[in-house]
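Researcher: Next entry: 5-methylcytosine-specific restriction enzyme subunit McrC (Garciella nitratireducens DSM 15102).
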Amino acid sequence: MTGNIKIKNIYYMLSYAYQTLRETGYNNVSTEDFDNIHDLFAAIIIRGVGNQIKRGLYRDYIPREDVLPGLRGQINVSETIKQQSLSQGKLACTYDDFTEDSPHNRALKSTMLMLLRHGNVKSENKKNLRKLLQYFSSVTDIQPTEIRWDSMKYHRNNASYRMLIGICRLAVKGLLLTTDAGTHRLSTWLQDEEMYRLYERFVLSYYQQHHPEYAPRSSYIEWDLWNDADMTYLPTMKTDITLSCGDKKLIIDTKYYGHTMQVNTRYNSTTFISSNIYQIYTYVKNSDKSSTGKVAGVLLYAKTDEEITPNNDFNIGGNRISLKTLDLNREWHSITEELDNLCAWLDSNK
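Model: Predicted structure:
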């Protein structure tokens, strides 16, 4: 399924998930034609890192331990004694080094090297990646698998890195594969788990940008309990997207799977995925605690190449439940038109 999505549409999805890509510095990327996903990531990283170099690479205080001819920071007494440094006129010191060799820059360098070594990147982009890597000579080489994405912090001085690191993370976690021999190669397409996250983030960001009148958000739903029962072990209900208009509410749950239908080989039958139906129904009924019928739910699947795909509307227990598919391989205006049409129920009198 995933390999059938236009590369250009992946860029558009990224531009909603990462708003920085909609800035003028990335306009030329949107007009390029890409043969593969590796080239797309390379082009985005080249523009982003190039812009960052003009601003200056982020520097941070990194803790160091070293044996030095003079005092710097604090003396590590135990190491000084252990290494008999005093007899050589030296001290084992622990100090903070203000350097470009930060986790953020290590992640950028590692991702660029990954695309160079393993990626199907055209020669012009490879040339540009090599040029940029010259600015990272003081940054330690690490393997992509060593990057600790969740440990990176962002603040005013490195806010421009947030999008870049997000793109790098998507490239590494979505493309990097380890072979049976322990070596690495890049997948020809993003893994479904990473595409699912991108798909969900894109749909929410699209509504936030183009339909703020519906207050698009991800929201928690409380269980409609009739007593004071212990809720400790009840699962949390959190929507992917919630749209509101007056007293009406539309809950959208995005689904990115290799299959949008379930097949029972024993009975040779094809049905909707039951767990998805139960999930959206539970969200809707617990959100519509007064049974007004003014809460609806949509399961929004990314279209697959299956012969049968969901495209149905039901009224279940007084609430509208819809199953829709979004074809990510169509022209972009058709994709956005389908997303716009999902809002029609909110404006209707039904």
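Model: Note for the record: The radius of gyration is 26 Å.
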